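Problem: given the chain below (415 residues), write out its structure.
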Amino acid sequence: MRFAGGHVPPRHVRTLAAVVSAACLALSAAGAALAAGHRPDATAAPHAVGSNWYAAAPYLMPLDNDPPDPGAVMDATGLKAFQLAFVLAPNGGGCTPTWGGTSPVGSDTAVAGVISAIRAKGGDVSASIGGYGGTKLGQSCGTPEATAAAYQQVVDKYGLKALDFDLEEPEYENAAAIHNEIGAAKILQQKNPGIYLSITTAGTADGTGWFGKQMLNEAKSQSFTPDNFSIMPFDGGFNGAAAQTAALTNFNAVLRATFGWDEATAYAHGGISQMNGRSDTGEYFTQADFQTVLDFATAHHMARFTNWSVNRDRQCSPPDNNGRTSGTCSSVPQGAYDFTKYSVKFAGATPPTTPPPTTPPGNGGCTAAAYDTGTVYGGGDTVSYNGRTWKAKWWTQGEPPSTGGSGVWQDLGAC
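Solution.
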């Protein structure tokens, strides 16, 4: 269950700083899109990025949690697609789509500008429906048809080729709401040939819990098969990759029992959505855990590999965030967008081997080698990072240079 770190439990309440940050990002993105000849309403046809990219798209909140510049993420990692979160019913009630319960899709320009900027760089987006907290359209719309009509507005507004149904607490405990959501997904699949649809739900040690199994039974009763059913094995007593791969193995058995699939077919319809770094309940998932899960997913030819979230894919200061979970950083030592690069690998692309330059060409530049999160540094070793030169005081690995953290790095000044 995604309390989504840093806003527990209602993650859609924005601080003034988040609103200002989102507005600045949207204006910047819209300007870039206009300069590239893209309409700010995001109705320009998306690039054909391929279903492998929609299957690998990590979550990004474009209006909350100090969103990073998607273009910078793409340049640094090679990523081509983002999962924008979350489409909800209005906080005051009704059956029209909004971002986070507060920003109507019909009059939106901010998210549209972000989408246009991503498409201008050759990428695309999927929209995620639901999540933890807020009122879902499946709860407020009376029928599958009405729910589908609300989601169709989102598809049409942004020219979407992919959607994610994030069905978790408290909505998935409501049988009528889940009937509406699954029915809406089936209608959208029929009305939008080729649309990529993922269903994401809570993970447990035995794959998924009672309500997750009821959701799968609802899909079976409606003869609906999405591109994948994904579980979220975190915030439920998980720690590290072994617990997650065990849950994926058990979820495979659940899919086989529900739909009568063989093992290979079930894996080909299964996926995982992880939480990078420290989870809401204090579990930890490191880069090594992501690599292990990635190896498992690719070896079993699984359908999806994603995580919550790009907003969190950067180091806190201090790196452990004093034992707290944040919506804007991972609370573990890391380089910028380390976890996003695993999505790029799942999509079949190769992430850039070096980060983009941090200083403009011809600006003097740094003479020391650029810091690399995977390299072991000994006392006296120097690196360049963010336009400055740093010297290691003792052995270190995986802790990017800063004046905080363990204190291992000495700032030698600007290059």
